Amino acid sequence: MIPIKIKEHLENYIHQEVYVQIAVIKGKEKVSTKAAINSYFNSNHFRDLSEGRPYDHFIDGLNDKCLFKLTDSPMKDKETNDEVIKELQKKLKELSNDQLKNTFWEIETGEFVNNDQIKELEQERDQMIKSLDLKNIDNVHKVLINFCKKYEELCIVKYPDAPLPLEVLKSTGS
What we know:
Blueprint (H helix, E strand, L loop, with lengths): L3 H26 L3 H8 L3 H7 L2 H12 L18 H12 L2 H5 L2 E3 L4 E3 L1 H17 L5 H22 L9 H5 L2
Antiparallel strand pairs: 1-2
Helix pairs in contact: 1-2, 1-8, 4-7
């Protein structure tokens, strides 16, 4: 199972990126949120999103942080007060080489994942790709509105005074 912190981090990133892109279109074109979403369908950003690129970049980043790559690092035995480095040192000493080859570090959250969890991320990517297939524009519109709602909900908690240019929560009565 994918650690909750990692799942939330990735989803929040995607929701923010989508929200900002749609808000920029809305502001530039002086159109409704729905019209801005329709314009977003024609953007390179939407193309990348609908091809799963945010997940691909995230997964590539995890693969770059395979703990096995740190087995010969001078940091492995260095004295430090940094709790993150201490946790990495502990893992490097406790895990076998096979386990290190199957352990990846997500820097932003400090969480560790394995190959099975990366496969789960790939499945989530594939589900998102299916949900963004423009053969069903109404569904894609709902998915993007949902992303924007989730971002506004996050903003209300983290940045209560920040303006929300799409006002999705207001318009949907949530």
